[in-house]
Design a protein that fits this description.
Two copies of one chain form a homodimer. By secondary structure, the first copy, chain A, is an alpha/beta fold. Chain A is built from 14 helices and twelve strands. Chains A and B meet through helix 4, helix 5, helix 6, strand 2 and helix 7 of A and helix 4, helix 6, strand 2, helix 7 and helix 12 of B. Chain A binds a DNA duplex through helix 2 and helix 4.
DNA sequence: GCCCGAGGAGAGAGCGCTCTCGCACGGCAG
DNA sequence: CTGCCGTGCGAGAGCGCTCTCTCCTCGGGC
């Protein structure tokens, strides 16, 4: 039960006075205590305790030029951010890693094109030491903004342009190959694909994996969705109209797979007997809730978030001018077999 | 294309020099420009532009004692945070309101009991001006922490203790009454309830609403879940075992309703013919994806988030010592009729 | 034409911290 | 016993900004 000094929080000065040392020594103790003799360390520690001293972050970062915070920028049209647990999970991984290093997470949600100015100003303002950014479309202005602000930034998902920026991504192409390979191993021959929006690399990479395994496949077997349940349903209807004889579907995420599943059932196709279905993500709350439960390609979403944070922190520690920008990381995927294929 | 001065960003001093005015005048212009004659204002504005000046937030908040940031504290066991779009949506509303006022959002996720120390230190450290906190269990230490830190805090959801803290909550009790009233109007007489965890007021309030309409109901008609799909399924199994003759279920959220739906189907009960089912939340991605689509009680989640932020900002503006802590707000609910009841 | 008041601009103090520098003191070698 | 080096501590400058206080200037009223 520490006393409350309303209005005037104790300063380092006060701590120093109470401990009978100089401000410099008090500062040394607060920041690790190296080079100070034990008895003095104890005295200062005690003074800190008694006064309930907490360093003023503004004063500190004014001189250190470090804020101890990083921005997490989520640029995604309405629909996806709050229907897709993907981001929550990735942010969770990021949060864990950051708070383990006592770094704070400032969340910047981009709601519309006007927001980019705000974000840009915020980054150049030096509120944060670095940034993590998500889910770029090919024409996303974010990389240009973070570069312009001179802000070290790690991206989530491979950016859709040749710039050499550090990123963390799942092995989308390999995962897709595995999904299709599984369907082939079940004896399926008319394998359709419901792709995500093709201005995102996650979609194009998964499509590329599909094509790797089925180079001869009829283009009519591919339909584009938008990573939402509804778009998956729509794409499935299209595919059934175009190629009624299809016997398998690989959807680029679980949400679209669940939409497809509903449409398949409405058309009287049994899953997996008539049509085998594989998703992507292994979003447990979706994949296990469908009937039948979804066979899907699992990516370690939380781990990817953790990796992004780790990469950024490492880059920050070496200084931006250090031996190298952090390099990128591709995380493996695994096929999770449930009942739908 | 502003020139980049690596290492040395321009200061107010530099702007003042370039504009041929004093630092004080430059500051006045940057902060609104009142009391400065137009020609000087223009000169300063131009200098700001040319140098690409952005104020140093640390220096600023060192003297103003305002950070321009608020904390959003999410204390929720793993499972729920990333399976439930609830939070994402509420955070979205908060983010919109905050960024409209140029206030930043610092996200603090509580991963375990050890984190409370970290949070407490962070709040007392003065990193933020105020806080928004979520989803308290009855024994949650958060209110004590924010009070101890002297931090103005608006809660999301009615806290489970008598303290007079400002909060924003949906009309859980009224919504529950409406759900049950609807089931009664359909002629159902054996109406069961799948409650949420009973150490949260959202659950107890919804249960209270159920009891308001059915004061005589057999206690065996109520089972407790945990707001997850799996727990909803489990609760439904229990209820069917205890009261096989039930003809309606009101679940305290959509996730549990979807779990219940699966179990009902597994037991050969048709929905809505044999058993009518109503959920709560109107989580569109769930309620519309079930088969049949879920009748549910809608709460305006994003709006609630926006309101929380508005309440906090207003309180902050008046100063904590102002005429009054912000008062609480209860937002209305509406019944959304789909096919399940 | 003079005085007074209002309003606009500048000087300077400080917000709370870190960090460099210099000084003092103790131990050891010569 | 003296000189030198290493270590521990304190003094003080300064990070970039805001804001008060003072000074100056200009306009209006008598």
């Amino acid at each position: 039960m520490t006393e409350q000094y309303f209005g005037t929080r104790p300063t380092l000065e006060a701590v120093a006075a109470r401990a009978g040392v100089s401000r410099a020594t008090a500062s040394r103790v607060v920041n690790g205590g190296t080079g100070v003799r034990p008895p003095l360390v104890d005295k200062v520690r005690q003074a800190v305790e008694e006064l309930g001293y907490v360093p003023n972050p503004a004063a500190r970062s004014l001189v250190t030029r470090r804020t101890g915070a990083v921005a997490v920028i989520v640029a995604e049209p309405e629909t996806r951010f709050f229907s897709d647990p993907f981001f929550s999970q990735q942010i969770r991984g990021i949060s864990k890693e950051l708070s383990a290093h006592d770094v704070q997470l400032v969340l910047l949600l981009v709601e519309g094109p006007d927001d980019y100015g705000r974000i840009s100003r915020y980054l150049t303002g030096g509120h944060v030491d670095g940034a993590l950014a998500f889910s770029l479309h090919d024409d996303d202005p974010l990389p240009a903004i973070t570069r312009g602000a001179g802000m070290l930034t790690v991206f989530g998902g491979r950016p859709g342009f040749p710039a050499a920026v550090p990123y963390v991504d799942a092995d989308n192409r390999g995962g897709a190959r595995e999904a299709v390979r599984h369907l082939l191993s079940l004896g399926r021959r008319e394998i359709a694909h419901i792709a995500g929006p093709l201005d995102q690399t996650a979609s194009t990479d998964r499509l590329a994996g599909y094509r790797d395994m089925l180079p001869e496949a009829d283009p009519a077997l591919v339909a584009e969705g938008a990573f939402t349940t509804a778009s998956g349903a729509r794409a499935m209807s299209e595919l059934l109209a175009r190629r009624p004889e299809l016997d398998a579907v690989f959807a680029a995420n679980d949400l679209m797979a669940s939409g497809a599943l509903r449409v398949l059932r409405e058309h009287g196709r049994r899953v997996p007997e008539d049509v085998a279905l594989v998703g992507f993500d292994d979003m447990v709350s979706i994949a296990e809730a469908t009937d039948p439960p979804l066979t899907t390609v699992r990516q370690e979403i939380e781990e990817m978030g953790r990796l992004m944070a780790r990469l950024l922190l490492r880059g920050l520690d070496q200084g931006v001018a250090g031996p190298g920008a952090p390099s990128s990381v591709i995380t493996p995927t695994t096929l999770v077999r449930r009942a739908s294929a």
